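Entry type: protein chain
Record version: 2
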Amino acid sequence: MRVLLDTNVIISAVATRGLCADVFRAVLAAHELVTCPQVLQEVRRILIMKFGVPEQLSAEYLELISQEAVVAEPADLPDLPIQDKDDAEIVAAAISARAEVLVTGDHELQGLKSIGKVRIISPRAFWEELTGQE
């Protein structure tokens, strides 16, 4: 399955040992990770500015993600009923990469449920799907 993990999921996977870390590992191990320049830039900015991760270490981490992922360029931006228009680029990248799932902690994006063939779900819902829990 092609899966785009939103910035908040990747940051949570790095910063904690909880659900998002489990989701991140599961996607890397058994699925096709999709990302986009917008997510990579946001992850870099947050790692450096919020967590004080040195620039070199941040760059190396993002290089590892880029090597493991399909890096999709957003195509035409969809007209979405959301406040944060930067999120439209992430949705557009998921569509252009033919991702099946966009996993995000963003409640506004989750409220869309799906755009085209891309389902938009929470890390918890995705984990429950992967592990057969309901």
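Comment: DSSP finds seven helices and six strands in the chain.
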